[in-house]
Amino acid sequence: MSEDFTGITGNKTMAAALVETWERLTGRQTRLKTAMRIYKLNEVKHVKGVLGRLRPMVKEDEEWFLEWYAEFLREVMEEEPDPSRVKKQVLRYQTAEKLQRGMMIWELKGKPVSMAGYSGPTPNGIRIGAFYTPPDLRRKGYASVCTAGLSQHLLSLGFQFCFLFTDLLNPTSNHIYQQIGYEAVCDVDQYEFLEKERMTSDENDRFAGRNELGIIH
Questions:
Q1: Residue 153: strand pairing partners
Q2: Distance, CA of 40 to CA of 122 (rounded, Å)
């Protein structure tokens, strides 16, 4: 096993076994970064009572979308966004073939209120992600109706199912997905392989306690 690896993501049981082997062979430690669950949807349970409409992102959306995508990276991915990377990602969404990647917007009276993207098609399904709703527009049903609308759109394009990864520490998003028809498939853990100098004894104790509780970030 190469020591150049920076981490793994995989089935909960298999990932744990690999991590144990890695630590034994390399003398390095690992950190459980994110505990996730994969959900799959074959049929959408439509959201009712939320005003607005679904539409694809267009060139004119670029200015606000740059800001939203940066906030998505900062809040959901927990990383400080690199402006050049954000710009590149926005361009990919704008120029990709529609069966490969795209971004859908839920708008109300001409104003965007939520977004949801898709990418990574498989022979029969496609992954959805990059969900974001600004804080002042949350708890109004926009995220639910946008995700449901995107899922139906993708099924209408010919995909047999949609799938997604969720953070188990976010009960709100897990509840939303189940309400619109997503069903749990399996749990997946993401581990980071740490350099020896990055883990002090105090950090060891803290991470151990958090992992036992399932609180990982």
A1: none
A2: 13
168 contacts: CB under 8 Å, gap ≥ 6: 35, 36, 37, 174, 187, 214
* Predicted local distance difference test score (pLDDT) of residue 37: 96
**What pTM was estimated for this model as a whole?**
0.82
Residue 110 within any structural domain of the chain: yes
**175-187 per-position pLDDT tens digit:** 999 999 999 999 9
Are 29 and 126 in a shared domain? no
Number of domains in the chain: 2
Whether 83 contacts 144, CB under 8 Å: no
Phi-psi region at 110: left, alpha or beta (left = phi > 0; alpha = psi -120 to 50): left
Check residue 197 and give its pLDDT. 55
The answer to the question of residue 91 being in a domain is no
Domain, as residue range, for 149: 44-60+98-180
